[in-house]
Amino acid sequence: MKQELKxxxxxxxxxxIAAYKAAELARLLMKQGxxxxxxxxxxxxxxxxPATMQALTGRPVLVNQWGAAESGMxxxxxxxxxxxxxIAPATADFIAKLAHGLADDLLSTLCLARDCPLxxxxxxxxxxxxxxxxxxxxAQLGRDGVTxxxxxxxxxxxxxxxxxxxxxxxxxxxxxxxxxxxTPLSLALSRKRERELEGVRVLITAGPTYEAIDAVRGITNRxxxxxxxxxxxxxxxxxxxxxxxxxxTALPKTQGARVVDVTSAAxxxxxxxxxxxxxxxxxxxxxxxxxxxxxxxxxxxxxxxDTLTLELLPNPDILAYVANLPKPPFCVGxxxxxxxxxxxxxAKRKAKKIPxxxxxxxxxxxxxxxxxxxxxxxxxxxxxxxxxxLTLARALVQHIVILYQQGKQR
Length: 410
Prior knowledge:
It is a single chain. The protein is an alpha/beta fold. The chain has two domains: 7-190, Rossmann fold; 201-296 and 307-409, Rossmann fold (3-Layer(aba) Sandwich). The protein contains 15 helices and 19 strands. Helix 1 (20-31) runs parallel beside helix 2, helix 1 packs across helix 8 (169-181) and helix 3 packs across helix 5 (106-112). The chain is elongated, with a radius of gyration of 23 Å. The protein starts with 6 loop residues before the first strand and ends with a helix.
């Protein structure tokens, strides 16, 4: 029989369309033995009613700070009995309040007066998420020790698509329970995000490459660039100076990073060679094409009944080049395999002679909003369970920080 968790959280709802997901989130948490006390902003009440949340949790919903407790101190009393406060959804406006210590309603006051961990699940339009002000506020929350859950990329209520969508209730419930249980992943995610990479220069490759066959055709792959961009965001949150060499993607530019756009593997190689001398850490996330056409045609090759033979030449191995420099940066590689993941990842790390390699199954990761990784280093292997790519990237970068700092001490 599964043992109940027996934890108590405050679930805070702010005024976003994703508030509808909070009902299912509350139900899933309670199913796992978590007691849920809901607190809502006035704006949240326009998207889902307090009556709905009260019916699901069996507890009166806190909305008005002036009449929510017999003592008149709901912002103090409520936080004292909670194992964590979870804000889901957290709008750009509420995140700004948290970052600047504002307390003009019950929920923001409760967060400011807490003596328990705070978890924030962002939910907003992609342009609001990418805005420099929001990214500064998110980075500040990270420095303040707030655990950030998501967001992910996907379809949004406004009809657009991109980063900013709140994680689904099932994903949030899993991550919250993991946090409350102090699993290895949650410990990495909840670790206070001081600026551990302040002044550290990080060079990252991301996305696919495109190798021209003729004027309209080419060789590429299904990489979306989401994992590489998430790693860049995670490094920025820790204070790193990030240069992101990106193949062709549909993702918005990473605010705060120097982005170098490339198309082919040769262009990516040239960009890496140009910037690697200034890098302290190199993270090769890009899905670089292994081969290119030997003689790409400047004109479109016309279809005919004849067999077309395409001669391919190997592309440069960017990771091997960086790892074999006389004074290489701390190198992190990625391996996307379709079978025999552990065996092939271990062999790749050994062949490249790098301190850390992150491996995943390509069919489960490429183009998806979620991923799972197995990290291979000198100590063995470390499993990061499946979650959204930004959350996973934060856990990965924390592992990189540990190994990088250990290397500097030697």
